[in-house]
Amino acid sequence: MGEIAFRKDFKQLEDGTEHYAITAMHAQMDQVGILGAVPWLLHLLICIPGLGGPYEAFKKYTMGQIEQRKAEWRQDSEKRPTDVVSWLLKAKDDGDASAPPGDDCLYDEGRLAIIAGSDTTGTTFANVLYYLAIHPEVHQRLQREVDGAQGVHDYNTPLPYLEGVINETLRLKPVVPSGQPRVTPPEGLAIDETWIPGNTIMVVPQYLLQRDERNFARPLEFLPERWLEEGKGLVLDDRAFFPFSIGPYACAGKQLAYLQIRMAIWQIAREFDISLAPQEDGKNFEQNKMPKTLLPWQCRLFIWSSPSERLRSPHHE
Fold first, then answer.
1. What residues are designated binding site?
2. Where are the beta strands (DSSP E) in the chain?
3. So where does heme get bound (predicted)?
């Protein structure tokens, strides 16, 4: 996401260590998770010297990268956008209404691109692997579907069970479990038989809604077939499933996230078998670290490559 946001590679795979800005980003989510419900207090605390901590560290890093990108943009005679920041700078140069009104908004967009594009996708990816490890029957069925797909590099091949695995993971573990705040219109709003006054801040907790038995049969079970034709009756109200939010403020990176997760799980299911590591029960992984953005606890997995053996296995005949 560093490349997509401001053409900066964090080089974590190359170095084998977590970049300090990413460490700070993860740590700042603790602050956001605890104080997200009272944003005025969060903004007050981070303005007090010494209390900003990881929030300030991550903010300073992204600001520095954006300033560097702005300098590169001014020297670029061709002005060809290649990342989020350069597209926003082009919009500003062109007088486009979509341009950020000032540098503060540009900094916010840069931070948002990194947080929304990396933590959420990575967390969902980890959650999918966890569910495949504890549900071998799901893992095996997914492998059969992937093995039968035509074209090793054709990621457009219909894979309904893979889609079901991803959707069911997002249902049980939405990456923003607390939901996003919204404000009712000035005239107020009626929801069923409840009247909510105008200009009221509301939050719909996705975690609870997507595990409610009124919306999903057997709500606490991991059932990818819920999203297939054979699973009719398991989804009682599909309006309750919105892991990327809905409306004009829904996640702009939804399709990119789906593509990244689909490609990664497609390749892993094709090449590897997965299980929990010895003496690992996964209980820590089931704990939610924070209410704002769901980051998983550590869980040790055992992943090994045996595609040829798998294709000869009786359960894949």
1. 251
2. 181-183, 189-191, 194-196, 201-203, 272-276, 301-305
3. 251
Question: How large is the greatest C-alpha to C-alpha distance in the chain, in angstroms?
Answer: 65
pTM score, whole prediction: 0.76
Give pLDDT, residue 301.
Answer: 62
Could you tell me which residues are beta bridge partners of residue 189? 196
Sequence ranges of the binding site for heme = 251
The region of weakest confidence among 60-74, 244-258, 261-275, 297-311 is 297-311
| Strand 272-276 versus strand 301-305 pairing type | antiparallel
Cβ-based neighbour number of residue 203 at 10 Å: 12
DSSP at 212: -
Hey, which of 5-9, 93-97, 279-283 has the most confident mean pLDDT? 93-97
Token code pair at residue 234 = 């398991």
- pLDDT by residue (tens digit) across 29-40? 666 666 767 777
Q: Supply angle C-alpha 235, 156, 169, rounded to 5.
A: 35
Q: How many CB atoms are located within 10 Å of the residue 165 CB? A: 28
- d(Cα 181, Cα 248) in Å, to the nearest integer? 13
Question: Looking at residues 268-297, what average pLDDT do you find?
Answer: 71
Q: What is the pLDDT of residue 277?
A: 84
Amino acid at 144: R
Burial of 192 (0-12, 13-18, 19+ CB in 10 A): exposed
E strands within 97-210? 181-183, 189-191, 194-196, 201-203
pLDDT-derived band at 312, boundaries 50, 70, 90: very low
Instruction: Report which DSSP code applies to 231.
Output: G
Q: What is the CB neighbour count within 10 angstroms for residue 182?
A: 14
CB 270 within 8 A of CB 146: yes
pLDDT tens sequence across 182-211: 889 999 999 888 999 999 988 888 889 999
Rounded Cα distance between 55 and 29, Å, is 8
If DSSP codes are grouped into helix, strand and coil, which group holds residue 245?
coil
